[in-house]
Amino acid sequence: MFVLPPPPRYPSQVGYGLVPGYAAPMIETNNILSHPSGPEYQFLVGEGLYTLKEDLHLATPPPHPSEAPVINPNPLATTPQPATAGTSLSLVNLDIRPPPPPGLFRVGSRANGVQQSIQEHPDESRSSSGVRGSSEGARAASSDAGAIFSNTPAFGEGNTLLAQTNSKDNKRKKPKNSMTKSNSSFISRVIVHESLHKRLNDRPADGLFAFANINRAFQWLDLSSPSKADYLTKILFTKAHCLCHDVNRLTKTSSHIDVIMGFSTGEIIWWEPISQRYTRLNKKGLINKTPVSMIQWIPGSENLFLAAHMDGTLVVYDKEKEDAIFSPEDEAATRASRESIGVPNGVKGCNYTSQIHVHKSVHSKNQKANPVAVWKLSNHRINAFAISPDHRHLAVVSEDGTLRIIDYLKEELIDLFYSYYGGLMCVCWSPDGKYVLTGGQDDLISIWCISESTLIARCQGHHSWVTSVAFDPWQCDGKNYRFGSVGEDCRLCLWDFSVGMLHRPKAASVRQRGSSFSSRFASLQRAETQNTTTSNRLRSDSNLSSSGDAPAEETPEPTTAKQNVEPHPVEPRARTAMLPPVLSKIVDDDPLCWLDFTKDGIVTSCKSGHLRTWNRPSGDSSTPSQSQHGDDN
Amino acid sequence: MAGFFNKLKSAGAGSSKTDNNASSKNKRDEPAAELTPLERILQNAGPLREDGSDKYFGLENFGNTCYCNSILQALYYSEPFRENVVNYPPLDIPSEGKTNKVKVSIRPPVQVNGNATAPGRQLPKPRQGFTPGPIPMTIMQPIRPEDRPDAPEYKKKQAMIKGPVLELAQENPDAYGMEECTFTGLKDIFTALIQSNSRTGVISPQRFLDIFKRDNEMFRNSMHQDAHEFYGLVLNDVISNVEAYARRMQESGKMNGTIQSPLNQLSSSPSLMRSMMASNFRTPETSWVHDIFEGVLVSETRCLTCETASQREETFLDLSIDLEEHSSVTSCLRKFSAEEMLCERNKFHCDHCGGLQEAEKRMKIKKLPKVLALHLKRFKYTEDYSRLQKLFHRVVYPYYLRMFNTTDDAEDPDRIYELYAVIVHIGGNAYHGHYVSIIKTKDRGWVLFDDEMVEPVDKNFVANFFGDKPGMACAYVLFYQEVTFEKMREELDAEGLEEMRLATQAADLAAGVEQVNGTEKNPLTKVNSQPTVPVEDLDPSVSLAHAQTAPGGISSILKSSTPTQAPAPEPYSHPLIAAPPPAPVVMTKADEAATVPPKSKEELAKEKKEQKAQEKVQEKARKAAEKETARLAEKERLEKLAKKREAQQKEQEQLAKVMRESKQLAAEEEKRRKKEAAAAEGGTKSGPSSPGLFNRAGLGSRSLSRKSFAFLGKTGGGGSDKSEKSSDRAGSSSTEHRSNGSMTSSGVAESNASSRETTGDGGNGFGGFSPSSPLSPTSRGPNGIHPHHHPSSPMRSTTTPDGLKRDVRASRSASTSSIPGPPPTPPERFEKPPLRDRFSFSIGRKKSSRFLS
Fold first, then answer.
1. Fewer CB in a 10 Å sphere around the end CB: N or C, chain A?
2. Are the C-beta atoms of B70 and B423 separated by less than 8 Å?
3. What pTM was computed for the model?
4. Complex prediction ipTM
């Protein structure tokens, strides 16, 4: 195979327009593996001592040579900067995995939670039994190939146009273009390890792969190899920064991996690393021009994936379809989009707080080309989203501080919550689908109970914005939950919570939408509206009176609630439980941007590309029978 | 040359939009001909507003005065503050409102060809630019920074050339009935901006700064100064000016019952009077600065031996917070309120146990201010170098904020704040550098104010100053203002649109996609970006056209306006028409000239193209008409000016006369006053100068009340200005200790608390910055906390009758007059100024007792 020479090292002074007084960052083109040790690379939690296993520094690429070096030393320059997302990874394991740890999913307790939330929508009752069935495999499904959800309907079910010509043979369709021979101006250079196939053959079957995007570079690493610092493949893009990526858990085999990447230009690349072939989607931003902040395969689908664009749109693409110029299909959507272009609406107009605007439905009859579906949530950047373990709901967080719970099968907004203040930056579901965690610019992690649509607790312990949260499924059972978080303060925090332990807000009753929040609502709302003469915009279409005497009042049940979701007001601090961390430790020198749990430990990554693996306490492994686990982030 | 450079650059980069801008600038070459980004967004701005929220003026830098400029802008854009400054002292007769027109002279524009400046002033003094190092100039030697069209130097120069450059040349104190002071200086600037009939331009704050420097000795040099310190001093000056004025009004009113000042009317009954005095002039009239900026801190100290908790309250005008690497403002604020152990050298003297004990202390906020100023302590004193070092910690600040560190009984503890101004310090240390401010304006989004230059920026720009970006620019003071949740949501919705557009652009940029309609999508154009823009933005003729096609009233008009037009207005916010007018009623002169007769209605509906063309024509006509009216207005204004000048002359003659008299009086008075209490002043003054008053009254048409009286006060005090002040100070400081009686419980808890030496405020901190700053060699020592403690006062806590009252005014006056007040307490006393270290400028006056007795 033709192998390109190693890329040149760029003199660092030219690379960045740095000002004297600042240490120029080392621009390294090779990954460096190191094993720092010592007391500062350990931390003690209840279950034992975590130690740093290794630090893999992924090379941060310098700007492309064709890009003009930043010579403007003016710190006030208003030239737009390319979006960047630090280092984000996904860990993938090709092994067909045995079921997840027992005791992790209590079918009973889980059904309680989810069923309730679902029954809010009466016409959905048919699926309430299905939840139970899917729960078993909820987590496993996210990574397992071939998991069938007999009861949770697949996304877009009923639309025959979307039906797969489900090829049972393992000959999966590959992308069109060859990566290595590409002369696209989008891709600057591709470096494939010289003995890629040898390495692929030699590696253990259950070894972890890692895919990582760092600015304009994308790396494919084999974490099970002793020479893990040598990437299997590295792609450098020309100007576009890769902001996110995802690996299809359903289709991955040793001969085929579907990777999808989202870029700061809005473009998307479908890449198959083993054959080194790729396809570009949303080329030149034909469908949506704004950066893709998060991208994820729709669980259980071979072809469909969901991309969050920064203009507040969620778009479902099909990896194999061509792009077509998109214009909103339904009337309301057209109006909304027109509004968003030119005539901004101050008070009235399209209301993003009560519903999502389906610009194109999965059930549309026009499914010849991409996009498959388009949902406009708001005009704000979507920072992250997460798909619930039962593959039914989406939790979406935005820069304006909203958390939306969406039933993506039915394309409906279910709930809308607000952060304490500031934007929300990350979100995840508990393994059993009961709880959602969000982290944001208020330095807090909030725990939301979806079935009761309330805020359970706020977690205070970070010293800066929270950039990533994840549950540790090995430390969770039906009652006690362990999750971790990282933030811009370079800290890793670990948290334990059990629902019984937390003081629940008094008013939290079983009835979700009615009196439970209105009483709490009243106090804060009153305080906040006292200066405004205008009536409460958020509640203008609600049945609750804005006069503040709401406690006794009850909202009529689902019929109205279904159409117009009432945003939940911000809980006052005095009424919310505050949870302290069980651990808060600075684990890196640079702001952290991602974390994940594996069976063996915790993996964190930072903005400058350090990938650190922290081993779990060696003596006591809570679930020794489990194989290594690569979970989605 | 510049053109050549540009070509080079754009060939190289081929990406940035500023290049396009730049080259287009060069093509035309005539700077007056093309629009700056700011002017572009203001193109269809409609009539001027009366509240001044649509004025975007640069402030002239005459040598190291950027600290002043950045703060002034931040203050101006604080709506409540601006309103209050402009409306205080309240004029008695509203119809006379225009008489206090500020005397503004417009400086002749600077010659384009270079160095000629206005007579008598050297304009472009060497000032700090943006070149903290010798980076760029090495590459292109022959091009001076001001020749590069994208350089701030160039833009500043252009701003000066373009003008109008407003100058407040003359003293204008008598219009307000106050002697010239920091407050009047500020008021002059604000009023001049509001009254200006241009939206953009440059105003010279020199007059203001002269006055300020007169009153604040340590600013009397041309060194780089600390913006935060300046902010605190200005506020304190304003407070004392306003209160001094109120006091004088009251006193003279009391002495001379015939003269009715509004204040006097209020307090005509003796009981009322007493209650007012008891409230220490914190009448609604004078307490507005407190209302806006003042919060209350509670420090709780719990003795670990006897578990007794004591509390102590103090007020603050801003919070100075210590920084940590990789933290957020939220976290720094929480740390500010974190529990603190008082042990070892900093033990706490507990009254209950009677001795020095270990104790826990924490500070919480009891009352949240309306405007929360957060001073990030970026300058740290290092013993090693015995100088202030700048901390380049990355400290993130959110656009919205709530405070975690409130007391349980705080009112509205979940109050939400929005970031509205960021003061940025650019430079490597505390002794050099440059300040700029980035301010969220009412309806034009974020705007960068860099001395003379004013430029709209996008929201993301605000997040460039966390401290980790190259260029050494860091946020230094953050201004958060109270906001309601609904308003926040609304604004967020608006900003979302803008952000979306920018994201698209950035994407285009990165993808190398050529702009199809380049000019329209210029990153700095913000015409369509702000959805809440009120009616001014709507081209009136456009709205008319729509009114004709859409019969459904205003709401339908709003809906029907097409995307290409200016954002939909909210009719009620029209500044000139009070009642929300149905669109057709909005007939300005310009419109009448410009609008086509309603016949064209059907055509309009039918043929869009024609409509557009028509609109263009209308637009042109309208513009022409506007110009015409503008010219007329200008004429009128000039005439008025002339008239006014005449009047002024007359006044001046009068004034001179009165001055002569009063000077004599003042001389006599001065002797007396040295021994007299401050309270006696007003009466002695008012009597003799009354002839002047009568003269004036007979002469002008002004009423006898407030204004003329004020004039009197001024002239009376004119000659003895200084002495009056100092005695005033003496008065206030002498009352200091009395005022404290009520709240003493943990006076020493405070003073006992551990010094936060980590921040290295060197002991006697006046704010986080000044004290140890070698910046101003003049003695700033007494500024800090120490003067407040009686050197002799024993270390007791709860029972201290004349406890450790902290009054910034006292401290300030101590430092400015540099004689009175106890000498800076040497640091051998183990009590350190813990609080000072963390916050500054507390106005520790209690309502209770200052003027009782």
1. N
2. yes
3. 0.67
4. 0.78
